Amino acid sequence: MSARPLPMPTNPALLRHAEKRRKSLENRIADQITRFAGSMQFVYLHVIWFAAWISLRVEHYPFGLLTMIVSLEAIFLSTFVMISQNRADEKRQVLADHQWQTVQQEEQQNEQLLQLSNQILELTKAIHAMNTARSPTGPNGTEQAARSSIRNAMRAGDDPTG
Question: What is the reported pLDDT for 156?
Fold first, then answer.
């Protein structure tokens, strides 16, 4: 009787962490025990075991041996619960480290994009300044030339709009 295996993580950092855990026999054993101890099969097994122990009268009330066995089992299970919590903490730390690296990479990319945007702005300003310097009528030369031609056309009696 074993519980269903846990699904494989999709996060690359968790995949590497799971692969690293699988290399250790102790970790594999602890993972299997905690997986089984946290299942309904574990509960059903204990219900059957306790019912059989009591109904078959393996010992008389107050069931001293059964109490001792269950106490020892509780000690070990509480240890495996702590192991499971440590494993969950390790996973959270792996995820936090991975997210931190991602944030750092994004920050670096944002800085590069900001530098590129500033370079584009400076180049645009330089091109604008060059075009303004070449224009004989100044910064508003095109607009001033258009107004001037409209005024001249109106004086001559032509229709400026066509």
Answer: 58
Beta-carbon contacts of 95 under 8 Å, excluding residues fewer than 6 positions away, are 11, 13, 14
Sign, CA torsion 53/55/59/61: positive
Measured CA to CA, the distance from residue 117 to residue 8 in angstroms comes to: 42
Which residue pairs from 29-33 have beta carbons closer than 8 angstroms and sit at least 24 positions apart in sequence? Answer: 30/80, 30/83, 30/84, 30/87, 31/87, 32/2, 33/80
Q: Which portions of the chain are predicted below pLDDT 50?
A: 1-2, 158-162
* pLDDT at residue 65 in the model: 94
Residues in Cβ contact with 84 at an 8 Å cutoff, skipping those fewer than 6 apart? 30, 34, 38
pTM of the model: 0.52
